[in-house]
Amino acid sequence: MRPEQPLQPPDESIHSFAIPLERTMTMSRIVQWSITVALAGFLFGFDTAVISGADKPIQALWGLSDLQHGLLIMSMALWGTVLGAIFGNWPTDALGRRATLIMIGALYLVSAIGSAVVSDPVLFAIFRLLGGIGVGISSVAAPTYISEIAPPKYRGFLVAMYQFNIVFGILMAFISNYLIGSLMTEDAWRWMLGIEAVPALLYTLLITRVPRSPRWLILKRNDVEEASRVLRLINPEANVDAEIATIRAAEDDERNAHARFFSRRYRLPILLAFLIAFFNQLSGINFIIYYAPRVLEAAELGSQAALLSTAGIGVVNLVFTMIGMSLIDKLGRRTLLYIGSLGYLVSLVLISRAFFSDALGGLEVPMLLALFIAAHAISQGAVIWVFISEVFPNHVRARGQSFGSSIHWIFAALITLVMPWVLGTFSGGPVFAFFAVMMLLQLVFVMFLMPETKNVSLEDLQKHLVGDDVSLRRVHLSNARAST
Q: Is residue 148 within 8 Å of 216, Cβ to Cβ?
């Protein structure tokens, strides 16, 4: 009789694989939710760019003057965006992040259908205004939601998907306009605008499947049970009770401070949000995107202008946005802005020199414009919405996101309005030199004031960036901790 074999310890290989598998499934859920929410950015980009295909047909159809056309047709969505950004914090806080995102989908849907079927320029302007309001609110609600569900290690990448979808939406709008315009002639512009209803409806249906933000549930609804369920979905291994206690403790600090938003307590996050939004637009990015054909005509490029201003810029923007997304959690937000600032300076200074020296007509200017777009996409384009969503505490995050987004869109609107006059008054040399000076100032901002926020929890960032005694010393302390 064979001796009885000793009992073998249980095979732990299954357990060792179970934990990584569970982590993979958890990240899969978070990525799925983030992608769904980031689709608001796709609608943002599509809605912003699709009007380019309807520009001339609408003016001819309704016999509008240049002033009427600019006010009612081309700029109405932009002013809606400003309104949505300014007031977007209210529904984001009062109704919730998810409910606001559903409302955004409805606004895009109504705007797309209404803009496509109306036969009156005033009604057209109203529907475009609604779409613009959706754009503005989405720049508040979507980054806020994603930042609140994302693990610190991947927060930059996940929030940056919103920017990627903006760029992707712009490119798809150009492609859609081209395809529709080549397939039909009569009322093609209506189909160009109306086709947005398809992704808007799909997005609205998908967004109902994402959970509500656990931080919003705790701080605005005191729904600890539902918040605990969502936190366990986000990280099954986490000590949920400890996380909730940390969130509540941070909130208690804010409530006990009794500070208004525009107060000494929040001066540093407000300053950081203002400066990054200010420099985003004073880089000249919207000037390049909106007025690329004029710039290239001034550079004596002739027929190459249309290609570079649509497909060329769109592809470069998309590719380097993806590169920025892949690097934002590895290199950090500050490093990307260092890289971008240098790219901005090189391209803008050389473009300015080309205009001053009259070295035009070749490929130098379009190649330098491509470098400029690449520098923007890998830095400011990838970082802005991430950074603004991180630097404000939970209690005022939606308000802070609204503030930063408002600054961004107000300067975008102002630049769009004044640039035709600027181009008619000055040559390209001083215009690009001005933007170069602004990017030199951005480099100073990055070197001496901007904190690194990668891989730091939102509550820890709050400790370093918020308070009556916050100093640059504490900001650099957060930089050091974030880099370890």
A: yes
How far apart are alpha carbons 58 and 70 in whole angstroms? 11
- Interval 197-211: pLDDT, tens: 999 999 999 999 999
Give the count of beta carbons closer than 10 Å to the beta carbon of residue 455: 19
Please count the CA atoms within 13 angstroms of the CA of 23 that sit on its side-chain side. Answer: 8
Could you tell me the end-to-end alpha-carbon distance of the chain, in angstroms, rounded to an integer? Answer: 61
CB-neighbour burial class of residue 124 (10 A; exposed 0-12, middle 13-18, buried 19+): buried
Q: Where are the alpha helices (DSSP H) in 330-396?
A: 333-356, 364-378, 380-391
CA angle 253, 254, 255 (to 5 degrees): 95
The pair phi, psi for residue 408, each rounded to 5°, is -55, -50
DSSP-assigned letter for residue 307: H
Residue 381, classified by CB atoms within 10 Å of its CB into exposed (0-12), middle (13-18) or buried (19+), is buried
How far is the C-alpha of 442 from the C-alpha of 113, rounded, in Å? 41
Tokens of 483: 């880099």
> The tokens of 91 are what?
């529904």
Distance CA 111, CA 122 (A): 13
Tokens 């499947």 identify what position? 209
| The residue type at 331 | L
Nearest to 470 by CA among 447, 446, 454, 449: 449
Helix ranges (H only) for 88-220 are 89-94, 97-117, 121-149, 155-183, 188-194, 197-207, 214-220
CB–CB of 460/391 below 8 Å?
A: no
Torsion of CA 388, 390, 393, 395, to 10 degrees: 70
Q: Would you give the distance in Å from CA 160 to the centre of its chain?
A: 7
Q: To which residue do tokens 């777009």 refer?
A: 373
More reliable by pLDDT, 69 or 482:
69
pLDDT at 61: 86
pLDDT tens digits for 278-323?
A: 999 999 887 777 666 566 665 555 544 544 555 677 788 899 999 9
Q: Which pLDDT belongs to residue 13?
A: 44
For the segment 91-97, the average pLDDT, to the nearest whole number, is 95
Answer yes or no: are the C-beta atoms of 135 and 44 closer than 8 Å.
yes
From the list 459, 453, 457, the residue with the least C-alpha distance to 477 is 453
The alpha-helical segments, DSSP class H, found in 51-70 are 55-62, 66-68
d(CA 398, CA 138): 11
Give pLDDT tens digits for 175-234.
Answer: 888 888 888 777 888 999 999 999 999 999 999 999 999 999 998 899 999 999 999 988
Contacts of 458 (CB under 8 A, 6+ apart): 147, 148, 152, 215, 390, 393, 394, 397
> Considering the entire predicted model, what is its pTM?
0.83
> Residue 182 in 3-state DSSP?
helix
* 328, 453 Cβ separation under 8 angstroms: no
- pLDDT at res. 256: 64
